[in-house]
Give the backbone structure.
Amino acid sequence: MAVRRKVDPAAGRAALVRWVAAAASGGGGGRGDAEGSGGGRGDAEGSGGRDGGVDRETLAAAVRFTLEELAQRAPGRSVEVRVPPFGAVQAIEGPRHTRGTPANVVEMDAATWLSLAAGLVTWEDAQASHAITASGARADLSSWLPLPLPR
């Protein structure tokens, strides 16, 4: 089943490029460390300045675009990936989740997600810094990240 896009791919790529550029220039995102990570959860206001120094609209577009890219590249419904408050997707083949809390859940803040999606931090480093909350046997996205996206 095709992923229903909410974010125009061109606008999403542009938002991601702006976030990566801001993060690379010291905007605070892309660090992948525990300091200021909000314990792996939070939003742009509560992320300790790790939003990459971009406005909330750009941050939201970049997150939603990359979540949609993951769902397109790893179709399925066995893992729910959450990046509050911006979005969540179900992805990766396996037992389908239909009701209640999914058995496989991955949750993190926007800066951690974008850092992983863009390849600025590895899955292992983000887990080691406790920037990711993951539960379930399939809740490992390392084989899907980073996403093949423009840098």
About this structure: The radius of gyration is 14 Å. Residues 30-49 have pLDDT under 50 and may be disordered.
